[in-house]
Every structure is written in C-alpha cells, then in structure tokens.
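Shift notes (night). Ran Transposase while the centrifuge was going.
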Amino acid sequence: MAWQPRRLTAEQLEERRLEAAQLLESGRYTQAEVARQLGVSPSSVCEWARCLKEEGLSALNTRTRAGRPSKLTGEQWQEVKRLMEEGAKAAGFATERWTLKRVAQLIHRHFAVHYHPNYLAEPLHRLGLSVQRPRPKARERDDALVEASLKRDWPRIKRGLLAEGQPLPAWTRRIVRFGPAWVPPGPRR
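Came back to this:
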C-alpha cells in the first residue's frame, strides 16, 4: 500500500467513505476487499455498509465537529501568528522566548479573550508554529575562551590519542577536519 498521511482532513475522510459506498453498491467487492483497497479496517467498512443500508448515502457525509467553537476567528488567529513572528520583545515581554502562558497573555491583551495555556498548543500548531526549546547554555560560558582552548589544546590531545593507538572520540568526527575545508569531516583515507 502507498504512503498515507498520519492525519486525513475531514474532506479526505468523507471522500474515502463515499468511495467505499460506491464500491459496496457496485456489488463487485466484498467488505474485506473494500477495506484492503482503501487501507481501512474491515470493521470500519462493516459500519459504513450498515449506515449505507439503514440511512442511505447521506449517513456517510461529514458531520459538524463536536466541541466548543474557537473563540477567535481565522483572521484573528492569523493576527496572533503575525504578532508572534514580530517577536516576544515587540509584544512587551522581557525576553524573546515564547511560552504558552505568554501567548495566552498576548491573546488576552489584543482580543480580550481568555485562553488557558494548556489549550493553545493545538491551535498554534495548526498555524504552523511549533514548540522550540532553546539549547541549554551556561551563563558563564565564554565562547572565545572555549575556541582558544580548543585551538591550543586539541592538537596536543589528538597527537597523544593517536600515539597511543586509541580512536578519537565520536564527537570529533562531526566537527574536526583533517585537511583543507573542502575535505569532508573525519579521518583521511
């Protein structure tokens, strides 16, 4: 069977159910064959066949989704996305780090709508925004000092390891170049 996305849209699910209805009504396929052809479980096809027999084709159409409707319109969500892309500092926060709590505060400030932070991840994900966790970095770290230390000490350490016949640590294969910049990382062959 060909690759299929993990989540189908409501329209795609409806299209699949209606395709199953056509195959079942044609009478040429068993429920098991329809299930294999559409990549669904036989129990789903059995349920669709029952609905088709009892209620007709309209029973397989998409129904409105259950649950509370969004408090913001689509345009307002796009505005939230735009505000977030401008940055957290531009929105009045001390740092550039967005948290769900901060997004909830931003929505409350601009639209006077309260969202609990626990329920913002999904709508933000639908906007194409995802969780970004910054890499941990020590406050005391001095990158210039680390770079100088590597340039000064690494050749001595490397010579010692090679003289002892020990392999170089795995992390060196990613970043250490042996030769000119155009040579790929790793030992020469």
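The chain has eight helices and no strands. The chain has three domains: 10-60, 74-126, 154-189.
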